[in-house]
Amino acid sequence: MKSHVVGSLLRPQALLTAREQHAAGQLSSERLRELENEAVDVAIALQEAAGIDVVTDGEQRRGVYFDSLAGVLDGITPVLPGQSEVLDAMVGADAWHTEESATELSDLEAKLLITGRLARRESLALREFEYASQRAKHPLKVTLPSPSSIALVFWSTEHSTAAYRDVSEAMDHVAELLREEISALAAHGCRFIQVDAPDLTFPINEAKFFYEAAGLDRDRFLAKSVELLNSVMTEPGVTFSTHVCRGNNQGQWHTSGGYGAIAAQVFPRMDNVDLVFLEYDDERSGGFEPLAEIPDDKTVVLGLISTKTDVVESRAQVERRIEEAARFHPLENLAISPQCGFASAMQGNPLSAATQRAKLELVGEIGRSLAS
Length: 372
Description:
Blueprint: H1 13-23, H2 29-50, H3 67-70, E1 73-78, H4 85-91, E2 112-120, H5 124-135, E3 141-145, H6 147-153, H7 167-187, E4 192-196, H8 209-212, H9 218-232, E5 239-244, H10 263-266, E6 275-279, E7 299-305, H11 315-325, E8 334-338, H12 353-371
């Protein structure tokens, strides 16, 4: 059994402070880059020491997980509250849930909106890969956001329609830009690419507002999103994965409910996806029955280790859950990972660096034990 991570790791406090100083004009870009490099080195070493089979750079250069694309596109600009119903809902406290009181995303995470035709002005993902690939001894994965997640979340019927007829046209253009990004990564030797699609869980229950506000019904949204996923995963020689979670913001989530609500419409249609990363860390995720909808030859990566809590799971309990999952998908095509990133948003989830290390080590240990 292979062991994986989803993407992000906690950022060291020195890097968080440096980002604040850089935003305030108190730190040079060169010094920020040096600190990012140091953080990437530590992130890779941490994963490899834990025995993770496929590693990332920890997304240390990003403010939020989708920065690799959204942060380098012309045509996406910061907006004020009230300018986008979808975005206001996405970043507002009402959209996020936790065992504690929910909070809004911080001001350091840009609130963005499509206001013009999109164009790539650079490639943050390529810069990330070029540096990290020189450091990593294990296979290195790059994470990118899905076309539907970028277009949908930053869409405004009022402000975006000057550039695109509707959100579907915007999704198509984002997919085109993402294919360019993937081609550039592949040309430089990247062989593992993950396309994150947290928006696919919006239809499960209370998050349906996000696609309805953009003028899409449930079935059309799901069909379009999966169609675009397949359309960007066409580069020869690249192993493609997708991560389907329920939101991850400082320990909070936007959706609860089992994958059964979307499984029949989504999983059998993921033709070009090699690995499907799924969130299975608590009762919000439901049972393993929906795995039966995933073709047997695809690898299902079970996110059984929570990145949202400061408690390290029991190895015996996690292994029992893998046995349960194997009733619905072949054991030889199961893998293990944390349930999501440890820091999809810059501040990170509410757990310590020591707990993060222990959870990564647990992922590596279980992967090795079940591979033997």
